[in-house]
TrEMBL record:
Annotated source species: Araneus ventricosus
Domain named AMP-dependent synthetase/ligase: residues: 213-427
Lineage: superkingdom: Eukaryota
Pfam families: ACAS_N, AMP-binding
Family designation: Belongs to the ATP-dependent AMP-binding enzyme family.
Transmembrane segments: none
Domain Acetyl-coenzyme A synthetase N-terminal: 55-112
A molecular-function term among this protein's GO annotations: acetoacetate-CoA ligase activity
Protein name: Acetoacetyl-CoA synthetase
InterPro entries xrefs: ACAS_N, AMP-binding_CS, AMP-dep_synth/lig_dom, ANL_N_sf
Length: 588
């Protein structure tokens, strides 16, 4: 486990955050009337005798009175529960996560998501080959009814686990081939999907009514696995009630309403995909696109889809945007993006170029913001307020009810200095436990050993003293130390991001046999460019000019490719132990 050293050089003396502080770039400063956030704020003001002059005042109330805040969220979204809650929060122990939220309540996750059952569109599905389909809310309800009846017929009950492999388009295609079906049918105790779904029907062919099991708010609902960027993936167990955190994000912060369309560029199974499911509860539809962002066929690019299907809110990663830009996949003249209101950039530190690309090539009036969340939280740490200024590369505001801070080495909240991202008060978005984590040992070691009593997300961050915006720099346990100076790989990336010769890059720390540590920068060249001593010097000069000589890695090397995890994060496990390389001396 990484620990900050109290003797370390101050983290805010170098790096790209100094540049962002000295010259904040405004990307949004408009007023939008009658937002869902304003409606909710007025309800709180009237009920509690408050008057909030700004978002920051409202946020302070929401974290100072977080039980009242989550109570109002429950009522604002009219949570369906067969039995009302007795208390909003009951402490069951002295730990940060030792809480019973909405104790006594009985509800069902699916029932709350499927409260709409008419012929409005719920899902739109398309791929880069031109195939498309759609599902209405009523059709979705009937599909769920089929699955529920079949599962009950096969003995599934409360507490059982169901595994899902939703990224298996190829598997589904193969499984429908006649020769495959005939072979599978010979396997004992095997069952094919259509046969399975039919098994839930009664002898007369009818389906039983859909029964929604009424369960506690904190009943386990899903296991999401972390990406494994810095170690073995952790199975994060979320509760059924976490959907109210998603409703806060989708309706209040992103201002989604009935009829709007949501799109997220991410693999199914990642928490970013899951977190948008609650939009179904407010009548918004989900657009699902199966394909690569750099697909260039006319009429089937990502931009074609966002325009054609009138997407309102899109979540894109920095790596996706960089791929689109470098591949030259840009919106064509005449594309209509009037419906597109917000693009959130997440899953990694965003770059100024990402904001410039979106507002320059897509829509100059588009609201663009970095957003900050994690697999461990079913709700976002950061939020959006359409009536507050937003600045390039920053997460605009902390989410309502989320007491987000940056801590220094002594556990003090700091602004204008780099440190550890922490949350000081509990929310329903946090997990109930980690899968197969006996006595919560791994959970406590990972999230509570640095700063007891607060949630540490193990990310390095910085709060701009001028704008109050939040910069997420990267994993804190991957902060680099060279010549007794600490800096982030993000500082290096900031400097070389616009170099036309480079397709990708990754900067890591290497512990040498001498006891010293040095930073090593690996670069992947674009087609048509060669890695030469002159280019190495150009990279070095660019880093020194754009950030600082203190951020210059000791070694700059070419690499044929860079490993990534399933969520497009750099996978550093492959770089940690050079003794396992075929020629470790190459890296010395």
């Amino acid at each position: 486990m990484f620990r900050f050293s109290s003797a370390a050089v101050s983290l805010n003396k170098n790096g790209f955050v100094d540049i962002l502080e000295s010259n904040p770039i405004v990307v949004w400063n408009k007023k939008v009337p009658d937002t869902e956030l304003d409606k909710f704020k007025k309800i709180v003001e009237k009920k509690y005798g408050q008057h909030f002059n700004s978002y920051w005042d409202f946020h302070k109330w929401s974290v100072d009175n977080y039980t009242d805040f989550w109570k109002e969220i429950w009522h604002f979204f009219d949570v369906i529960a067969s039995k009302p809650y007795d208390e909003v929060l009951v402490k069951t122990g002295c730990g940060f996560l030792d809480n019973e939220w909405f104790s006594g309540a009985r509800l069902n996750f699916a029932e709350n998501l499927m409260r709409i059952r008419d012929d409005r569109l719920a899902l739109i599905c398309a791929d880069e080959h031109g195939n498309e389909d759609s599902v209405t809310f009523s059709e979705m309800f009937e599909e769920v009814r089929k699955y529920a009846a079949a599962f009950r017929k096969h003995g599934l009950t409360v507490g059982d686990l169901v595994a899902c492999a939703p990224n298996a388009t190829a598997v589904i295609i193969l499984a429908t081939k006649p020769q495959t079906v005939s072979r599978l049918s010979e396997i004992p105790k095997s069952v094919l999907l259509e046969e399975f779904l039919q098994s839930g029907r009664s002898s007369d062919g009818t389906l039983p009514e859909l029964l929604f099991e009424q369960l506690p708010f904190d009943h386990p609902m899903a296991i999401n696995f972390t990406s494994g960027t810095t170690g073995l993936p952790k199975g994060v167990v979320h509760s059924a009630g976490t959907f109210i955190s998603g409703l806060r994000d989708l309706a209040l912060h992103w201002n989604l309403r009935n009829g709007d369309t949501v799109y997220t560029y991410c693999p199914v199974g990642w928490s970013v995909w899951d977190i948008h499911l609650p939009c179904l509860a407010i009548g918004a539809k989900i657009f699902l696109f199966d394909g690569s962002p750099d697909y260039k066929k006319k009429g089937f690019t990502l931009w074609d889809c966002l325009s054609k299907y009138k997407v309102t809110y899109a979540y894109l990663s920095p790596s996706c945007l960089n791929t689109l830009e470098s591949a030259g996949v840009e919106p064509e003249p005449g594309m209509n993006f009037e419906s597109l209101k917000i693009i959130g950039i997440g899953s990694g530190p965003s770059q100024i170029r990402n904001f410039e690309f979106l507002q320059g090539k897509v829509n100059k009036n588009l609201f663009v913001s970095s957003i900050y969340g994690a697999t461990e939280s079913f709700g976002m740490f950061s939020g959006i307020d359409l009536n507050t200024p937003c600045y390039s590369s920053e997460c605009q505001v902390p989410a309502l009810g989320c007491d987000l801070h940056v801590f220094d080495t002594e556990g003090r909240s700091v602004v204008g200095r780099r440190g550890e991202m922490v949350v000081k008060t509990p929310t329903p978005a946090f997990p109930i436990y980690l899968w197969k984590d006996e006595n919560n040992e791994r959970l406590n070691e990972t999230y509570f050993s640095k700063y007891p009593g607060v949630w540490s997300q193990n990310d390095e961050g910085w709060i701009n003293p001028k704008t109050k915006g939040i910069i997420v720099i990267g994993r804190s346990d991957l902060t680099l130390k060279q010549d007794n100076v600490r800096f982030s790989a993000g500082d290096v990336y900031f400097a070389i991001d616009r170099m036309e010769e480079l397709e990708d890059f990754i900067c890591v720390g290497q512990d040498k046999w001498t006891g010293e540590t040095r930073a090593v920068l690996f670069v992947k060249m674009k087609n048509g460019y060669k890695f030469t001593p002159e280019l190495r010097d150009k990279i070095a000069e660019t880093i020194k000019r754009e950030v600082s000589i203190d951020n210059l890695p000791k070694l700059i090397l070419e690499i044929p490719d860079i490993p990534v995890s399933i969520v497009s994060s750099h996978n550093l496990e492959n770089f940690k132990d050079t003794t396992k390389k075929k020629n470790p001396n190459y890296y010395r």
